[in-house]
Design brief:
Order of helices and strands: HHEHEHEEHE
Distance between the termini: 70 Å
Largest sheet: 5 strands, mixed
Structural class: alpha/beta
Radius of gyration: 24 Å
Strand content: 5-15%
Shape: elongated
Mean pLDDT: 80
CATH architecture of one domain: 3-Layer(aba) Sandwich
CATH topology of one domain: Glutaredoxin
Number of helices: 5
Length: about 180
């Protein structure tokens, strides 16, 4: 026969500790959600709120054009800095963000020879390509490049590659803008 008293799976103090741990986990997730998810949300926002490249190239303002992907860890890492730069320079410059996973932008991916992401192309007010930055870039480097274009500093068109995003030639595979090297 069974007794009328059933033993509880957990006693009161164990239940209290378990509830406390669960509460701490939930609070931690809520506190850290901006750090964990903010870059992904920023990249989505960039793509949704971007100006059409054709309009940007014809409105007599310099243009910042970034090729990115939502799955790209370097793109996510740079997103908060790029957002700050966008907020600071948006009065004087167009900001265009093209997701390399969207076939709609294939023409631009080919035209600008995107072979690693993120790739930032900076154009003068006449839509002449002035600077190309490939891979992870420091905020200072991007701002200096924008300032040079905004101040009409003459110079040869330049390309700056980051060692983290260069796609190496490999005869065994074809590289595409959607790949990382």
């Amino acid at each position: 026969m069974q007794s009328g008293n059933k033993e509880s799976f957990l006693n009161i103090s164990q239940k209290s500790i378990l509830v406390l741990i669960i509460a701490l986990i939930i609070c931690s997730i809520l506190i850290l959600k901006n750090y964990i998810f903010q870059p992904t949300f920023l990249l989505k926002k960039f793509g949704e709120q971007t100006i059409d490249p054709e309009i940007a190239f014809t409105n007599n303002k310099p243009t910042f054009l970034e090729f990115y992907a939502e799955w790209c860890e370097v793109c996510k890492e740079m997103a908060p800095k790029v957002d700050d730069i966008k907020n600071e320079y948006s009065r004087d410059m167009n900001f265009v963000f093209l997701n390399v996973d969207n076939s709609k932008w294939e023409k631009y991916i080919r035209n600008f020879n995107v072979n690693g992401i993120p790739q930032i192309n900076i154009f003068d007010k006449d839509a002449n390509l002035e600077i190309t930055l490939i891979g992870k870039q420091e905020e200072k480097t991007i701002k200096e490049s924008l300032d040079n274009v905004l101040n009409n500093l003459e110079g040869d068109s330049q390309i700056q590659n980051s060692e983290f995003s260069i796609i190496k030639d490999n005869k065994n595979r074809q590289s595409s803008p959607r790949s990382h090297g």
